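Schema walk-through. Below, the input block comes first and the output block second. Nothing else is stored per chain. Lengths vary across the set, and this one has 122 residues.
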Amino acid sequence: QVQFVESGGGLVQPGGSLRLSCEISGLTLAYHAMGWFRQAPGKEREGVACIGGGDGTTYYPDSVKGRATISRAENTLYLQMDSLSPEDTAVYHCAVYKSMLTFAADSSPDHWGQGTQVTVSS
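--- output ---
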C-alpha cells in the first residue's frame, strides 16, 4: 500500500517561495514517474511538475515553467515553488503516475496524497 505524508504548505506573500515535501512509503521513487498536481476550489486538477523514473527527467507545464523545481531523494519527493502569485493558491498533492506521458496528458495519477494547502496572499 502506497502512503504519502505531505508537508511544507502554508501562507506566503506574493513573490515568495515554498518548498513542499512528500514522504512516500510502499514503493521506490526511482522506479516510478512521480509528480505534483494542484487543485483550487472550483477548478480542475492541474499538473505542476513531474520527474521520471530512472534518469529523473523532469517536465513542467508552461504555467509554472521557470518557477517550479521537482526533485527526489531516497523516498522523499520535493517541489520548490518560486515567484508565487495568488493564482498559485491551491491544495498541492504528490502523486504516482503510470508514466510522464500520463502526467503530460492530464490523466489521473495511480495514487496520490491528501495534499497540503498553499495560500498566496498579502
